[in-house]
């Protein structure tokens, strides 16, 4: 098997769609050169919203791994045990990761497609390769000052993810607290550098030892020795260089060292990375495995930082799709910083991966004069600068045999462990400081260095100054907010404030708070190190009326981790009080408001209700309307007085009693939630309605405007369109009614007739009065000719004019002119005006439909030739008619005709 190419992009994500996915071109290219390729498979994380510490519980991680196994088995249709035990040349499961939903596999194209077709698989990334990113700096960065003060990193550790750390070198004697290895066997590509060529070794004492180095009896591997040099910078103990006599020391010389070998041996591809053959290169999956192990074991390791002086590629922005993102982000959230080299390509707008991952602390290199090194990548993603030019540090012993050695190397690989060691040093001095706090301190106190040619200004670290500012400010109270309930006014028996401090604090207990206005007691729910929920309950809290306030007790001993006592306890805008109200509201009055008399024929009835205090949660649904189909509406007069108006329904013609009652399911409460205590008073709650009948009906056919209807009750009703109508007045029972058309429509003019126009009022509304409106149409037509006598063989012309003289438009009026047989070769054109419409032209007789606007006309110009025939008078008739379905009384003017007579003058030459 051969590898496809020498440098692989760090994040080749494959798009996933429902049921199928197309393999990314980069993977397709990889598969062209190799039957199987190493990949990292990302699986949907169903616990993504769960708090991180819960997701890292053993039960949760075991469940996640079991789910991942089931998904892989389902997609590939192979038992997971078979995939685990497959040989190095077969498709197989290479690694699982406990803290992130990823697996490392060796797969062919069909298997990649099968996994992508599963909806639980979110992406597949090619398992990328990277190479190692290839005495007097301690005073420069201020570490010596801290060493002199006794701060040397004791009690914490830093992890070196690299080619390993030489366990026999004097700089690390008794300092390596854990030694592990994550390395890969990929057929015809790589061989594991773990003991016995295992792909993982967590138990062998020197599993994280550096690989074969120049001078060793075994074949040297290009790139090895890098991790030893890096470890010496970060946390090496004092060591005298046997060559120059200088005393070398790391930034955190008392910190524990976690040696993590993440490189594999390659017998090809080395030249592409600038290394001799064989060489050491690192898979992304081995780095994730190492970071995953560090995250799981961070507490037992007292881990402060991880160093990754490795990487490659060119990224001008954050690469948060990189598969290493999740575990690096989780480490940061859990208090472990990951320092990563920016890279040595000299880019002025880009860094390498994984330094482009946003939660990482990305480091560039300077020389001792605070000038950015020419090889150091420069970009906005770089967080800190540190010395990285000609750095003298540990060199591996030959065959693990003393004496120790040292050598000088330049690179961002050397700058990065300065930062990893500085973080360990500060974490040791400030155990409760977060990664954010430590990074911010290093950034704010660093020496500003301008990078050329980018012009970016970045801080070169000063760890002594950062130590001085990490926590010199006493904590205060940022806010006190009403949490439960959130409203000031309440009737609950327990209230909770959320108290947020300006920083992480300690020693928060119930005794630190003072509550007034109640005999209730205080309890504390510690939400986080910066927030506490303070609850008051018990005592008289279930019955007291009044203001309950929260304050701080005299003698409270809240302080931050550095020992600074709580200072300002009065935040601006604090919501420190609740107003408790446990007294139920009462309905004091329930009366007729308008009209005030009990007996009425009013169409609108208004009740008024008054309560003993302001109420809420009140609506029309809290009342039952009795004796009518009227609709109720609800209007507040003030917070304790409301009016309910009944209207519509059958009120206009009802005879009977109308009442209003509180509903059995009413939900009336006061503003804090106390339910209504006393039921409605039994006074003035009904109206006696005496009514007649309304008169109405429907209008049809109305086109014009100005239709006015009247009745004998004095109502004058203007109707604007078809549909029902009702007069406003009511005819008393037994009285007669009469409806007439007072004014017919005028624009356009219509005639309207009434049926069922009179009768006697009864117990129900009169709704069968019918008003039918008819349209008025008036059409005219005329015909004329330019010839007084018809000459044989001569041409002649006719002019036919159609005019709509009526007030309404007429659609599809038919115009005809059937020509006599003596006229041949006829043709015509039509000219409309005033918005009318007709066909433009035609031949022979005219038989056309036209649209005529009020006052509009169409004019036909017809030309023909006289044929042979007997001498006689020639008659030509033109007609127009409206459509037959137009409804109107007077149809005589719905059509018109005109006839024109022309004498013929034929001679003997013409044959009949």
Distance between the termini: 108 Å
Largest sheet, order of strands side by side? 9-7-12-6-15-17-19-20
Query: What structural class is derived from the secondary structure elements?
Result: mainly beta
- What is the number of strand segments? 60
Radius of gyration: 49 Å
CATH topology of the largest domain: Rossmann fold
- The CATH class assignment of the largest domain is Alpha Beta
Please state the average pLDDT score: 87
What percent of the residues sit in helical stretches (DSSP H or I)? 10-25%
GO molecular function, one term: serine-type endopeptidase activity
Protein name: Serine protease
Organism: Wenzhouxiangella marina
Active site: 162, 226, 413
Can you offer a commentary on this structure?
The protein is mainly beta and 912 residues long. It has six domains: 25-127, Alpha-Beta Plaits (2-Layer Sandwich); 131-429, Peptidase S8/S53 domain (Rossmann fold); 477-580, Immunoglobulin-like; 587-689, Immunoglobulin-like, CATH 2.60.40; 693-775; 779-904, Immunoglobulin-like (Sandwich). The protein is built from 14 helices and 60 strands. It has an eight-stranded mixed beta sheet with strand order 9-7-12-6-15-17-19-20, sandwiched between helices. Strand 44 and strand 45 (716-719) form a beta hairpin. Helix 8 packs parallel to helix 12 (412-429). It starts with 24 loop residues before the first helix and ends in an 8-residue tail after the last strand. Mean pLDDT is 87; it is low at 1-22 and 907-912.
């Amino acid at each position: 098997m051969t590898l496809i190419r020498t440098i692989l992009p760090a994040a080749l994500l494959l798009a996933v769609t429902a049921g199928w996915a197309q393999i990314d071109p980069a993977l397709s290219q990889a598969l062209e050169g190799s039957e199987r390729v190493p990949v990292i498979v990302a699986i949907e994380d169903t616990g993504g919203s769960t708090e991180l510490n819960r997701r890292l519980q053993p039960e949760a991680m075991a469940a996640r791994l079991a789910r991942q196994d089931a998904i892989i088995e389902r997609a590939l249709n192979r038992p997971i045990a078979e995939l685990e035990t497959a040989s190095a040349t077969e498709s197989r499961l290479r690694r699982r990761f406990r803290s992130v939903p990823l697996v490392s596999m060796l797969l062919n194209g069909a298997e990649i497609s099968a996994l992508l077709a599963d909806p639980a698989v979110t992406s597949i990334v090619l398992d990328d390769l990277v190479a190692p990113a290839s005495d007097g700096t301690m005073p420069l960065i201020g570490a010596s000052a801290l060493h002199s003060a006794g701060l040397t990193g004791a009690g914490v550790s830093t992890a070196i993810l690299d080619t390993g750390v030489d366990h026999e070198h004097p700089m690390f004697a008794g300092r390596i607290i854990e030694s592990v290895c994550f390395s890969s066997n990929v057929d015809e590509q790589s061989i594991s550098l773990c003991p016995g060529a295992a792909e993982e070794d967590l138990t062998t004492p020197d599993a994280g030892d550096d690989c074969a180095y120049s001078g060793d009896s075994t074949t040297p591997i290009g790139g090895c020795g890098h991790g030893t040099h890096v470890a010496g910078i970060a946390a090496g103990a004092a060591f005298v260089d046997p060559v120059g006599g200088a005393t070398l020391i790391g930034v955190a010389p008392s910190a524990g060292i976690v040696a993590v070998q993440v490189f594999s041996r390659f017998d090809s591809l080395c030249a592409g990375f600038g290394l001799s053959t064989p060489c050491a290169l690192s898979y992304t999956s081995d780095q994730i495995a190492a970071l995953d192990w560090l995250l799981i074991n961070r507490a037992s390791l007292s881990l402060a930082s991880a160093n990754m002086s490795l990487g490659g590629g060119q990224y001008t922005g954050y690469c948060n799709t990189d598969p290493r993102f999740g575990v690096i982000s989780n480490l940061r959230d859990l208090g472990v910083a990951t320092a990563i080299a920016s890279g040595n390509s000299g880019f002025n707008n880009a860094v390498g991966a994984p330094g482009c991952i946003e939660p990482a602390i990305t480091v560039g290199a300077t020389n001792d004069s605070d000038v950015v090194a020419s090889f150091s990548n420069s970009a906005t993603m770089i967080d800190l600068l540190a010395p990285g030019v000609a750095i003298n540090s540990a060199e591996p012993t030959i065959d693990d045999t003393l004496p120790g050695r040292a050598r000088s190397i330049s690179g961002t690989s050397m700058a990065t462990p300065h930062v990893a060691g500085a973080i360990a040093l500060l974490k040791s001095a400030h155990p409760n400081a977060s990664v954010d706090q430590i990074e911010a301190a290093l950034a704010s106190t660093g020496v500003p260095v301008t990078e050329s040619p980018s012009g970016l200004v970045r801080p070169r670290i000063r760890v002594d100054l950062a130590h001085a500012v990490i926590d010199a400010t006493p904590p205060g109270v940022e806010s006190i907010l009403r949490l439960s309930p959130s409203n000031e006014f309440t009737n609950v028996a327990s209230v909770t404030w959320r108290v947020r401090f300006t920083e992480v604090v300690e020693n928060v207990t119930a005794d630190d708070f003072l509550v007034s206005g109640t005999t209730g007691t205080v309890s504390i729910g510690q939400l986080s190190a910066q927030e506490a929920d303070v609850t008051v309950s018990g005592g008289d809290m279930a019955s007291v009326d009044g203001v309950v306030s929260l304050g701080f007790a005299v003698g409270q001993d809240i302080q931050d981790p550095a020992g600074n006592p709580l200072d300002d306890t009065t935040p601006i805008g604090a919501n420190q009080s609740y107003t408790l109200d446990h007294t139920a509201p009462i309905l004091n009055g329930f009366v007729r408001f308008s009209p005030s008399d009990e007996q009425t024929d009013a169409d609108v009835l208004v009740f008024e209700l008054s309560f003993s205090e302001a109420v809420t949660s009140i609506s029309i649904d809290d009342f039952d309307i009795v004796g009518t189909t009227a609709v109720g509406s609800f209007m507040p007069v003030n917070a304790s007085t409301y009016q309910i108006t009944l209207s519509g329904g059958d009120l206009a013609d009802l005879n009977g009693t109308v009442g209003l009652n509180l509903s059995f399911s009413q939900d009336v409460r006061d503003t804090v939630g106390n339910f209504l205590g006393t039921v409605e008073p039994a006074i003035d709650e009904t109206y006696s309605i005496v009514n007649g009948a309304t008169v109405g009906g429907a209008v049809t056919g109305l086109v014009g405007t100005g239709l006015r209807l009247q009745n004998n009750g004095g109502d004058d009703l203007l109707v604007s369109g078809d549909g029902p109508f009702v007069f406003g007045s009511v005819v008393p029972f037994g009285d007669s009614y009469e409806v007439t058309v007072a004014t017919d429509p005028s624009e356009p003019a219509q005639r309207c007739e009434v049926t069922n126009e009179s009768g006697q009022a009864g117990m129900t509304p009169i709704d069968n009065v019918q008003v039918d409106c008819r349209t008025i149409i008036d059409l005219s037509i005329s015909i004329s000719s330019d010839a007084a006598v018809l000459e044989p063989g001569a041409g002649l012309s006719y002019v036919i004019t159609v005019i709509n003289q009526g007030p309404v438009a007429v659609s599809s009026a038919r115009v005809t002119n059937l020509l006599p047989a003596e006229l041949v070769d006829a043709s015509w054109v039509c000219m409309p005006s005033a918005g009318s419409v007709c066909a433009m032209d035609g031949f022979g007789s005219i038989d056309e439909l036209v649209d005529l606007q009020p006052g509009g006309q169409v004019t036909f110009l017809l030309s023909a030739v006289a044929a042979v025939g007997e001498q006689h008078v020639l008659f030509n008739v033109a007609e127009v008619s409206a459509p037959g379905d137009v409804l109107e009384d007077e149809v005589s003017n719905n059509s018109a005709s005109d006839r024109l007579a022309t004498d013929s003058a034929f001679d003997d030459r013409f044959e009949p």
